[in-house]
Predict the 3D structure of the following.
Amino acid sequence: MKIQSKPALAAIFLLSIKLYSQVYSTIDYSTGTLIDIGSGADVCANDILINGTYSGTGTICTGPLPVELSSFTSAIEKNNVKLNWVTEWELNNSGFDLERKETKAESQWMKIAFIAGGGTTQGQKFYQYEDKKIKTGTYNFRLKQIDYNGNYEYFELSDTVDVKAPSDFKLSQNYPNPSNPKSKIDYEIPFDGKVSLKVYDILGREVFKLVDEFKSADFYTVEFDGTNLASGIYFYRIIAEGSDKQFTKTLKMVLVK
């Protein structure tokens, strides 16, 4: 919730508001006060008296907010982030847009999922979403709670989420295996360097080049498309070189059409 009082004559709050509480008080803005309600913000109370003027793209509403959110937490496993939140009650709750952005100054919020709400409920309701295979970086997460009338309110995760670069090399088995004809391969590199990932037939001949470029230390997924290859057994090999280190590994895959 963002409320700014621009002139010297500040807004007078008779009683305070709690963001996650269903109990709201009266707000009285003194004469001549100019209030700027930021984008996406709501000013809600049982009674609102404005003697001055207000501007901005936020909204002024009476009555309780649509949900009481009692917790919003995260847990990190490699480059997967599990997000959990709990509501104590819900009123006309359509659901939640889950949004993410990097902490870099130029980054923008991006919607990554919609999680359906419980409508109108009493008692706790538990939610969970796993944001999988995120690139290395530091992120903010927030929920945009939306009711069936289109009203919304933001709840931001209090802590940033830090997805660290891998600590070791890894090349995964392609999935699905057998592939028909497409599959994906995950790999992890702990340092910046040149990465080559190629596919060979059973005679050792190169038949497909998946990666052949400089890569930063991170988690990666690449797709293999065997549309133009015959069914059979193939091998894929990764070679990563950098920081006076080298990693090589070869795995077998089956292509079935």
